[in-house]
Specification:
Blueprint (H helix, E strand, L loop, with lengths): L1 H12 L13 H7 L5 H28 L2 H17 L8 H29 L2 H29 L13 H12 L7 E3 L5 E3 L2 H6 L3 H30 L5 H20 L1 H8 L3 H18 L3 H28 L6 H25 L6 H20 L2 H20 L3
Organism: Loigolactobacillus jiayinensis
Membrane topology: Multi-pass membrane protein
Protein name: MFS transporter
Length: 405
């Protein structure tokens, strides 16, 4: 029962993981509401939270070495609630909406990396892969709740989409009462004394595979961000619907992530060390189907596959990072992973704009190509096999180093 309570508390944080994308359902309506603002600036409502997350994860990695991770999680939930609910008051000024989105992202900068840290320290490695998969499934379930609920709430007035962030109150209470207070990490000296860990020294001694896998996460984030930030534009361009329809498509699509997350152990058995390859191929098919779709049914199939892709890749990446990290390194390695993930999500629209790639169909074509390239890279360099083969040896070496930090 204690393990179940802990699991429920930790996984409740995952409901918020995709919450920054809630407002993307209303992009078409927001573009109409702010005719003098550029489309790229409006799209930043869905991407600027990644900037807040990006800036925060650097600090959280250091804080998590010295402060209980439960405390950091509670701070994050509060900030997500503040950033998500203030737009109900300040929704007539796009700049203020962007500030609120930044606050929301700062909150996610606490909750997202801390969630993977908590999973890594509260569950054994045998349980960890399963819980990581479940966390991705709950990410998708959270997306269903947030995207579908937000889409319905904003059907008539787009600003009402933000009412969905009232859910942060329930999540705060679950974290407060169900997650045990964790201990701050320490190392043991040769004299048998304990001392606080140096975050900088731990970063210097991380396995090279932590960096490799984290950079794969960065590219996954960059590629995947193309999907939600352009979906409503494509749906509107194809005359398939508006804000409510996009919300429904996103909600149905995340069912794929929900199924894949709870079934990750079976995907691991099926694809073994090629699961990243399978994930990127699936994402490429997502972009292709929606790019050529002429009806809503094909768009929904593509959206379902996007959930499968997201679950396969984004659950595997933190698991791989945990495999090649010693327990004392978890806070730093997970923060690095999330930092690079946020970096990709933040700058994707800017990069596409710099390359003169237009929003909509052209962006999805770019997603097809980029997904194929990443699948080939993961296959040719046998990323999964290298990580799992070297994981245990690297972890043993890291433990020895960490003991002397």
């Amino acid at each position: 029962m204690k393990d179940l309570k802990t699991r429920v508390g930790v996984l409740s944080l995952c409901i918020l993981a995709m919450s920054a994308l809630v407002i993307t359902n209303a992009f078409s309506a927001i573009i109409a509401a702010f005719p003098n603002e550029s489309v790229a600036k409006i799209q930043m409502l869905g991407t600027i939270p990644s900037l807040g997350t990006l800036l925060t994860t650097v600090v959280v990695g250091i804080l998590a070495v010295h402060i209980p991770k439960k405390i950091l999680a509670l701070i994050g939930v509060v900030l997500v609630g503040v950033g998500g609910l203030l737009p109900l008051i300040f929704h007539t000024n796009l700049d203020l909406l962007l500030v609120c989105a930044l606050i929301l992202g700062i909150g996610l900068g606490f909750t997202v990396p801390v969630t993977t840290m908590l999973i890594s320290i509260l569950f054994s490695q045998e349980e960890r892969a399963d819980v990581m998969g479940q966390s991705t499934a709950i990410n998708s379930l959270g997306s269903v709740i947030m995207m579908f609920g937000g889409g319905l709430l904003g059907g008539h007035y787009w600003q009402n989409t933000y009412y969905i962030f009232l859910i942060t109150i329930a999540i705060f209470l679950l974290v407060l009462f169900l997650i045990p207070m964790d201990k701050v990490a320490h190392t043991t000296t040769e004299q048998g004394q304990t001392e606080k860990v140096s975050a900088w020294l731990l970063l210097r001694h991380l396995s090279k595979y932590v960096f490799i896998v984290s950079f794969i996460g960065l590219f996954m984030s960059m590629i995947y961000t193309i999907y939600p930030t352009n979906l409503s534009i494509i749906v509107a361009t194809k005359h398939l619907g508006g804000t409510s329809i996009t919300g429904i498509v996103n909600a149905i699509g995340t069912i794929g992530g929900l199924v894949a997350g709870f079934s990750l152990r079976y995907f691991n058995k099926l694809f073994k060390d090629k699961i990243l390859v399978a994930g990127f191929i699936t994402l490429g098919i997502t972009f292709l189907l929606i790019r050529i779709a002429n009806n809503l049914a094909v768009v929904i199939i593509g959206a379902l596959l996007s959930g499968f892709a997201m679950a396969m890749v984004m659950a595997t990446i933190p698991f791989y990072v945990s495999v090649v990290s010693a327990p004392v390194e978890i806070a730093i390695s997970m923060s690095l992973c999330q930092f690079l993930n946020s970096l990709g999500g933040t700058f994707t629209p800017i990069i596409l704009s710099a390359l003169h790639i237009q929003a909509g169909n052209a962006a999805f074509t770019t997603g097809i190509i980029a997904s194929a390239v990443m699948a080939v890279i993961c296959l040719v360099f046998s990323i999964g096999k290298r990580v799992m083969t070297n994981g245990q040896a690297t972890k043993s070496a890291n433990k020895a180093v960490a003991a002397n930090v």
